[in-house]
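Exam prep: given the inputs below (a chain plus adenosine-5'-triphosphate), describe the expected output before reading on.
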Amino acid sequence: MTQTTAPVAAPHGASAAGGPAIELRDITIQYERPGQEPLAIVAGYDLDLRRGGLHCLAGRSGSGKTSILRVAAGLVPPTAGTVGWEGLEITGLADDVITAKRRKHIGYLDQRGNLLPGLTALENVLLPALPDRQTRQLARRARDLLEQLGVAGRSGHYPDRLSGGERQRVAFARALLLNPAVVMADEPTASLDRASADALIRMLRTLAANGHAVLVASHDAHLIDAADSRTTLA
Ligand SMILES: Nc1ncnc2c1ncn2[C@@H]1O[C@H](COP(=O)(O)OP(=O)(O)OP(=O)(O)O)[C@@H](O)[C@H]1O
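Solution:
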């Protein structure tokens, strides 16, 4: 059961190819459970998220926020329905094609940040540049992002020497490296104190104002309030 507020207007920059940055149509997500009815997360769910908008998936723990994020990011297919990225329907495309498109279209920040432990903060930020061998060209941008996020002084540190908040900011810089149309973040304020969480919310708002589409999953009331629109999962 879901409740969605009105679709988001796009105050800055229309979508490149004419469709919403993220378009979910008639999405059903179910998980099979041995010996029981499948667990139904959503049925007939629609979302149009354009550049310039911040949408929050809200709801209690276990209500399905991460499941919708993962479907929207093309990490798993929906049980039924379609997923579109700026006019391109990705449902049914081969996994390697989706992966290549996702790398440029979506910056995804998962709940744990997931930095690679054997790489420094700067090397972690540069990871998305590896497949196109662009680490040299993007090194300056990586440093600028770390600077903007207030962790430039940690560039040479390994993840185990960073605080939770610093790890998350480094992961954010990595998500932004290729300037994706969409930024997705799963519970981005969960491990932060209030002041850091509010700073991060301001950053998400700035990303939207700069023309990104921002999709977050959160039960932080401050983040839910800061969104342009929200889906409340029950
Ligand atoms: N791959 C899976 N197979 C079976 N059940 C799953 C799978 N992934 C998630 N679930 C179940 O689906 C429900 C929704 O999970 P999901 O992680 O999407 O919720 P959530 O709202 O993001 O939770 P949280 O706020 O705790 O992160 C939960 O009951 C979870 O146990």
